[in-house]
Structure formats: C-alpha cells, structure tokens
Amino acid sequence: MAKKLFMFEKPLGMRDTLPFLYELKKQVRSVMAEEIERWGYEFIETPTLEYYETVGAASAIADHRLFKLLDQQGHTLVLRPDMTAPIARVAASRLYEDGNPLRLAYNANVFRAQQREGGRPAEFEQIGVELIGDGTVTADAEVISLMVALLKRVGLGRFSVAVGHIGYVNALFLEILGNEERASVLRRFLYEKNYVGYREHVKSWPLSSIDQKRLLDLLSLRGGTDVIEQAKTLVTSEEGRRSADELAALMAALRTYGVAEAVKLDMALVSHMSYYTGILFEVYAEQVGFPIGNGGRYDDLLAKFSRPAPATGFGLRVDRLIEAIGETDVRDDIECIVFSQERLAEAVELAEAKRAEGKRVVLQHIAGIRDIDAYSQRYRSIVYLLGRSGRDGQ
Amino acid sequence: MLTIAMPKGRIFEEAVELLRRADYALPPEFTESRKLVIDVPEENMRFILAKPMDVVTYVEHGVADLGIAGKDVLMEEERDVYELLDLQISRCHLAVAGLPGAKMNEIAPRVATKYPNIASTYFREQGEQVEIIRLNGSIELAPLIGLADRIVDIVSTGRTLRENGLVELERIAEVTSRLIVNPASYRLNGGDIERLVDRLAAVIPQP
C-alpha cells in the first residue's frame, strides 16, 4: 500500500533552496570557482544520468547508496553519485590525449540515497577539482593547497586537513600479516573508525609481540612531520618506506605552498575501503560534525575506462561548508521601483539605467501589491513613481 | 571545552566513577542531579545526560565531542564515530533467549527486541527468516504472552530471564561501554581528547 503523500512533500532527502540560502550558496560557489580558475583548472559539466555498468560501477560510492532507474531500452541508469567517475570517463574518452597533465574542475549536484534519518540531504552540491595524468607528489600537494586556499577564501575559521597514505597502511599490513584477507579485516576496522575492534583483533592473532606493537603503534601516529620518521621505523618493505617518503615530500611541498599548518598527518586514516591508491585526506571544520570535504589519489580509476593514468583531486560539500562558515550578511541588494500605470515609461527607463550600472532592480506595478507596508519591507531601498506629478517620492 | 554525552542510568554511575579515578574533579552531587546539562568549569568540561541509545546520535552530529556508549548501541546504530577505548565497564552480553524447550514457530517465526538492526543481521547471518518485532522495554514479556518465540536483548546477570522463566539460547556478542568521539572533534580538539583518552586508559580495569 502506497503511503499517502502530503501536499508539499518532496522525495526523501530532497530539498528546495530558497532565496536566502541560494544567495549564500552563490557567493560561496563563485568565490571558490574564481579561485579554482585562477589556478588554471577548467570547469566541465557532465550528465546527471550515467550508466550503472560504467560510471555507477566505477564510482567510489557504495552500491546501496545509488539512485537507480531504467531507461526505455532497459539499461540501468544511476543519478551520478559523485563527479570523479564521470570526469574520469570524459578524460579517458576525450580530453586526456597526449598523456600530459589535465586540470579539470566541477561544480555540480550529486545524489546519494540515505537510509537513516530521512532529513539528511540525498542531493547536494559539490565543488572540486581533478588533476589527471600527474603522478608526482607535487600534484597531491597542489590539490591540497588549492583546497586550503578555497577554504581560506570563503572565510572559514578553524579547519583541519587530516592526511594519510593508504599505500603505507597496506604495506605495513601486508608485511606483517602476509595476506590480503587479514589486511582487509584490519583496514575495515580503520575505515569504520573502530580502534577498539582493531586492537582486539591484533591481540587475538598469533603474532610476535614486536609485530603486535607495530600494528598497535600505527593508531598513535598522528601529528606533524615528526610522525613520518616514526612511521618509517615500523615498516621494512620498499613500498612502505616509499609511501612514508612521499608523505615527507608532500609536507615539504605544503610548507612551500604555505599551507602546512592546516594539515595534520594521521597514518591510520582510511577513508574508503578500496578506492584510493596513495595520499588521501579529509577536511573538518568547527561547528560541523561531519567532514566538509575529502579527496586523494586514485590511480586505478582511469584504467576502468581503458585509459590508465594517475589522478588526484578533492570534492567539497557546499552545504556543509556554508554551515561551517555560519550566517554571514548576504542581504541581497535588490532595489524596488513601484510605479503606477501613467509612469510606466519612466519606471522602465530608470530600471534600465540602474541595471546597466549592475544593480538588481525589481519593477512592480502598484496595482499588483496587496499590502504595501509588508512589500516594502522586503527591499533595502524602494522608489515610488506614482501619479502624474513627474516627481518621484522616496 | 569538551562536551561529553553520558548515558543516563546504570552506565552513568560506573562512568562517573571511572572519570573520578582518572582524577577528574567532578562535584559530589554530580550523580544525584536532575539537570540534563552539567558544567564542570574546573575541568573545562560539559556533560550532557541522554538516553543511552541517543548518545551516539549526539556524538555523530558533533553537539557532543565525546560520549560513553554501550557496544550494543554502537552495533545497533552504526554511526560514523571513532570508537577509541573499551572502558571495560557495564559488562553484559547480547543474547537470544526464549522459553525452555520452545521451538521456533515454523509458520510465523517472530523475534521481539529493542535491537531490530542487530537481531535482523544476526538471523540473516544464520540464514533464518524471522519477523522482527520492535519493542521499547520489558522484552521478556514477549515470549510469555505469545508475541514472539525468541527475544534478542542484553543479559548481565541473567536474573531477569530466570525470574521470568526464560533461558539464554545463543550468545551474539560481548558488550562493554566504549568511549566514542566525533570525527571532527577528533581532528580539531585532538590534544584535549588525547589527554582524556590517556588518563582514562590508565585507570581502565583490566578484564
């Protein structure tokens, strides 16, 4: 039996953006887009609908969180759950031709089904960049620095970027545990942030006390650059050391960019079970309990579109960012001209002149207003062109 | 300032005792108060008192930096929070119970519980198809009056089960209270939280 819908109801997790919030979003979005463009990234758009088999399967978002539907030929479609997979598709098919680095940016709504607490947004706006075809650590440093630059530009107060390296975690697990199954058990505990379960599991396995300690020490490797030296003492494999060296190079580059103080290392950071392949990060801000953005290196994704290439990038959630920035004064500077019929020509002329100066002007016939007091409250300034006098009252 | 969400009831007193052992100067009338928000300026801490099931919600949304929650609640709610310490207090376990010798109804097997998510996952793992009936308390009543064949609930001493003529049939998981932390607080107030974790870790009773 279908539940009866209320008159004003929207599908679960879908929201309207009313003028005040729209204005806020627009400001934040345009400041960030401008900064992204200054760094030479080019914006692109991709379709809202993609094929489930290609983009849906390649996406980092879990299957049960995809909105799926069928097209008329019976293909399964998804509402894009992120922008990284569509951009990888475009890059692989069209733009990434000569193998040289490609800098792309996006600003789009993405869709993720929510199961818990129906009020959580299932559609939200993301702004972000993808740097494709550059496997160097400077590429990682560039995207993190750009993200920090954006957060500073929009006036975000306190925030912190947690940076880790999944290659390091995997190398440590593999050299101690010897097989991928056990490694993936521990990785899942870190992904679920369940450090209690992680410790219990490590202690329950028949490992030497030195190896147990190495695995347990991983959890406390958090902080500044000094953490990297400690991290190096835990691993012996080539891969593990190389990952630690990459983090050292990253921190050096971030210092050059002048953003190192916003960054904290966390060697136990695992923000996805399998998607990322190297340096990865999450960003948190005061006043918001959830991450406002995340990103990292995903060198395996382009290969899913038959065009292997290294890539890194980030996505910021505009809604959470606005929550973190808090209420700012973005009263829309709209002027209103209220006119009566006989002065229409004059009103149109005045409005055009003001619009030509870049002002926002509402032109409203007096006869269309029911309550002039309430109406005039809405606007910062109001000009009356009424009657035949030819004089305008303020 | 750190805000800590505490579960009202049984766990609260044990948690307060643990904090005192960790040298936190909590006022003597602390546990008797009926206030829902208690500030302890000497320690730069604020405590909020919530229903045990709601502690994880406050922490996930970041209105509390930390919280103390039973593993049962964490398993049921599956919230995105850091589980940093096993406090080894309020020990109990999650179990399946029923009337002695009573078989599952083959036509309409029913399980009553306060933990629909845990119960459903458990029986799906076993490959059993059961109907889960959600109750909010006095779960032991369900098999006695024929609402369900089995219950899933926490058992500490087993006294409530015994007094109602029920027996424990299967053990699902061990439960103790955990220290949980909001991910953003973990990143932004790392120092304060780390100190609290270290001080608590030093006084946790070893099992």
Automatic annotation (TrEMBL), chain A:
The keyword Nucleus does not apply. InterPro entries: aa-tRNA-synth_II (IPR006195), aa-tRNA-synth_II/BPL/LPL (IPR045864), HisRS-like_core (IPR041715), HisRS/HisZ (IPR004516), HisZ (IPR004517), HisZ-C (IPR053846). It is found in: Cytoplasm. GO terms for biological process: histidyl-tRNA aminoacylation; L-histidine biosynthetic process. Keywords: Amino-acid biosynthesis, Cytoplasm, Glycosyltransferase, Histidine biosynthesis, Transferase. It holds the Pfam family tRNA-synt_His. PANTHER family: HISTIDINE--TRNA LIGASE, MITOCHONDRIAL-RELATED, HISTIDYL-TRNA SYNTHETASE. Heteromultimer composed of HisG and HisZ subunits. This is ATP phosphoribosyltransferase regulatory subunit. The gene is hisZ.
From TrEMBL, chain B:
One of its GO terms (molecular function) is ATP binding. Lacks the C-terminal regulatory region which is replaced by HisZ. GO terms for biological process: L-histidine biosynthetic process. Catalyzes the condensation of ATP and 5-phosphoribose 1-diphosphate to form N'-(5'-phosphoribosyl)-ATP (PR-ATP). Has a crucial role in the pathway because the rate of histidine biosynthesis seems to be controlled primarily by regulation of HisG enzymatic activity. One of its GO terms (cellular component) is cytoplasm. The keyword Repressor does not apply. It is an enzyme of class 2 (transferase). It catalyses: 1-(5-phospho-beta-D-ribosyl)-ATP + diphosphate = 5-phospho-alpha-D-ribose 1-diphosphate + ATP. CDD domains: PBP2_HisGs (cd13595). Heteromultimer composed of HisG and HisZ subunits. Coiled coil: none annotated. Its main location: cytoplasm. This is ATP phosphoribosyltransferase. HAMAP family: HisG_Short (MF_01018). Keywords: Amino-acid biosynthesis, ATP-binding, Cytoplasm, Glycosyltransferase, Histidine biosynthesis, Nucleotide-binding, Transferase.
